[in-house]
Model the fold of this input.
Amino acid sequence: MKSGRMAAALAALVTLLASGNAAAVKLQLSDEAFLDVRLLVQPQAQARQDGSADGDGVGSDFYLRRARLILSGNVTKNISFFLDTDAPNYGKGGKYDLNIFFLQDAFASFKIVPELTVDTGLIIAPLTHHTIQSAVSLNTLDYHAFMVKYPAGSNKVWRDVGVQLRGLFLGDRFQYRAGVWGGRRGESKRFDGPTALPDINPNGVPRFAGQVRFNLLDPESDFFFGGTYLRKKKVVSFGVAADYQPKVAATGAEVRDYVALGGDVFVDLPVLQASEIVFQVNAINYWQGDLSPATGLALFAEAGYRWKWLGGVVSYERFVSKTGAGHLQAYHVGLNGWIEGHTANVKADLAFEQDCAAQKKTRLADAKTIAVFTLQTQLFF
Done:
């Protein structure tokens, strides 16, 4: 791109941002190149049973669940990029620490042919449909994050630096994602007091992950999947996935291979004149060693119905840990107000959680059920 054109584009961007009148900013830099600047803000208010300072009363909290600056665009029609930052849970518990501000995604995509796109950079690894859904388009208030059990030190908010291949084939009926990531890197000479612990990934073997999907109706061709498409697509898809890295799952003196196998069903269908149903089930089996509370089966299901601007959603999540220390179970009931679709909405969620890890229990029957109410507004512009 010529320097004069770049200077003009940057000047226009500064002017638009400084004016305070811009929503999404899209700068057309040439016939094929453009820059899109967007902002995602998700303030939350939360009330938690037994969440007060003395542990006996209802605790309240107000914070920014997400605050993201998003830059994306095209260099040419076949070369695109995506970059965003985040400051998750800013202000939660009265903590206003800007050290939580970080780079979350940063990758370039090279479309070789319709059946092959290469992504490289800081990328979210594929597992089930839910793990690569956009936070902007979730049907529930938030992710079922307790169901994702990646090894410690192998990722940053499910992202890692790597290379991924993805594409659609056989008339868009099938799609795939497969790649290699750094994962957890080698750590030697670890000590626990006077005792030396085994090395972690001593040979520096990378992480491998991949997913294959079958699309019964419309394909989902974007990098991030939708949690709900608000009647813009008809989706019925089925996926299977695998994730592997050797000698990275450490529990005390035990170091084992990490393996995860997942499967899911995702349905989003417009019905009648102004309604939509959304349904998904995800299951992931994790192996991280016999001593790890993260070894076990994760399962969640959610179902939602929307009529015009008002929607309801229910969900259930459960993790059955091999050791018992990681058992978790939760029920959610939510109400969504789609004021301006994904641009502006309000979501309320009432959850009933049993978390053995948080309560230092080994049986769900012994874990107290905690009620949590969360209210969130979203602005994406």
